[in-house]
């Protein structure tokens, strides 16, 4: 099988497409032939030596923590799955990755079934950003129907899913994005789009109960002023989390960082929303495995629209 492997930590050009021996699923695992794997900022950050680099063990390493495809082998002791089933998952996070490949093995309890109306391509981009959005909104922030929630980077992988989940929950999503992204974000249910390039973009905003920060650093700290007294903030970029948490606490806000975790039950709920067309995945671009450097460069630009995928 073909896979993309990292042999040394470097920002660019360190990934090679290689032919590897097929692996067999261990006890309790499924092997899935991958139709699409998501490309996320954590992938290029880890390849550069940051992100999840401390967790992944020895190089060479196959990046990619999410994918969807068709089950082609079932490990000993697995029940409820058979060859030919359609599956998607956030896998082995943060230790192993392994999804930038034609096939991957992972524990059966990390996979969720892809319901028929959802394409395997869309399903490949849903798990990491979808679970992050879900856990940030509902577990960390405890978002309630009717509450106003400000999402920084609403046009990104996590942001565009977070705004739809907030809307489906009866909350009022407000998002920051470049003006060119406002029309499609409005179509997805964003109640107010704010162009963050404008000076003092947030100064006129009526205070929000919840802030989901998908940007971090100075932008996140500046946005804290938009949060109502005692409001809740979830900051996602781990590298600036301590700064944002300290600034928020100083302002009397409840601020948490988080690390997404695999959760097949939540993934099934996300898949159901997608099947009902209440959660739409925006895919800016699909790349072949040998175009991985291009995919990482686009992700690293910080202006990908929705998700980027590798389609082996
Ligand atoms: N802690 C966790 O478990 C966890 C999980 C997932 C992601 N993350 C982190 O969360 C962040 C977001 O992830 P993602 O996958 O959503 O990223 P992404 O898809 O790469 O985000 C790209 C989007 O960011 C927007 N953007 C860039 N700078 C902005 C700014 N200053 N203000 C508002 N929008 C801005 C761009 O919109 P425009 O083109 O309109 O500028 C673009 O659409 C990343 O740092 C990622 O590593 C953390």
Q: Would you summarize the structure shown here?
A:
This protein has 312 residues and is an alpha/beta fold. Helices cover 26% and strands 28% of the residues.
Describe the protein's architecture and organization.
This protein has 312 residues and is α/β, with parallel strands linked by helices. The protein has two domains: 155 residues, Alpha-Beta Complex (Quinone Oxidoreductase, Chain A, domain 1); 129 residues, Rossmann fold (3-Layer(aba) Sandwich), CATH 3.40.50. Helices cover 26% and strands 28% of the residues. It contains nine helices and 15 strands. The strands form three sheets. Strands 3, 4, 5, 6, 7, 14 and 15 form a seven-stranded mixed beta sheet that branches. Strand 14, helix 9 and strand 15 form a beta-alpha-beta unit. Helix 1 packs across helix 9, helix 3 crosses helix 4 and helix 6 runs parallel beside helix 7. The longest helix is centred in the middle third of the chain and has 14 residues. It is globular and about 60 Å long. The model has no long low-confidence stretch (mean pLDDT 96). The site of NADP nicotinamide-adenine-dinucleotide phosphate (NAP) has 32 residues, from helix 1, helix 3, helix 4 and strand 9.
Radius of gyration: 19 Å
Which residues sit in consecutive blocks of at least 5 with pLDDT less than 50? none
CATH superfamily of the largest domain, called what? Medium-chain alcohol dehydrogenases, catalytic domain
Q: What average pLDDT do the residues reach?
A: 96
The helix content, as a percent range, equals 25-40%
Number of strands: 15
Question: How do the SSEs run, as a string of H and E?
Answer: EEEHEEEEHHEHEHEEHEHEHEHE
Number of discrete domains:
2
**Helix/strand class:** alpha/beta
* CATH class category label of the largest domain: Alpha Beta
Distance between the termini: 10 Å
Oligomer: single chain
Biggest sheet character? 7 strands, mixed
What fold name stands as the CATH topology of the largest domain?
Quinone Oxidoreductase, Chain A, domain 1
What CATH architecture label of the largest domain applies?
Answer: Alpha-Beta Complex
- Portion of residues in beta strands equals 25-35%
Give a list of the ligands. NADP nicotinamide-adenine-dinucleotide phosphate
Number of helices: 9
């Amino acid at each position: 099988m073909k896979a993309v492997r990292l042999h040394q930590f470097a920002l660019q050009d360190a990934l090679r497409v290689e032919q590897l021996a097929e692996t067999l699923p261990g006890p309790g695992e499924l092997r899935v032939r991958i139709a699409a794997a998501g490309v996320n900022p954590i992938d290029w950050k880890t390849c550069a030596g940051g992100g999840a680099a401390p967790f992944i063990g020895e190089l060479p390493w196959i990046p990619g923590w999410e994918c969807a495809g068709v089950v082609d082998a079932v490990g000993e002791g697995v029940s409820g799955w058979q060859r030919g089933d359609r599956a998607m998952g956030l896998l082995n996070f943060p230790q192993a990755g392994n999804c930038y490949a034609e096939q991957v093995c992972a524990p059966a309890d990390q996979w969720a079934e892809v319901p028929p109306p959802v394409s395997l391509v869309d399903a490949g981009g849903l798990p990491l950003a979808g679970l992050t959005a879900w856990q940030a909104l509902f577990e960390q922030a405890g978002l309630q129907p009717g509450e106003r929630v400000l999402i920084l980077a609403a046009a990104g992988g996590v942001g565009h899913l977070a705004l739809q989940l907030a809307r489906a929950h009866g909350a009022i999503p407000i998002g920051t994005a470049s003006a060119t992204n406002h029309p499609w974000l409005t179509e997805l249910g964003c109640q107010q789009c704010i162009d963050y390039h404008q000076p003092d973009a947030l100064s006129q905003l009526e205070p929000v109960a919840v802030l989901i920060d998908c940007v971090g650093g100075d932008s996140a700290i500046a946005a804290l002023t938009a949060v109502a007294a005692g409001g809740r903030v979830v900051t996602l970029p781990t590298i600036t989390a301590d700064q944002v948490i300290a600034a928020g606490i100083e302002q009397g806000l409840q601020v948490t960082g988080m690390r997404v975790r695999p959760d097949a039950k939540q993934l099934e709920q996300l898949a159901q929303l997608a099947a009902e067309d209440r959660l739409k995945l925006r895919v800016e671009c699909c790349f072949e495995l040998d175009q991985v450097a291009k995919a990482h460069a686009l992700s690293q630009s910080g202006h990908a629209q929705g998700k980027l995928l590798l389609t082996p």
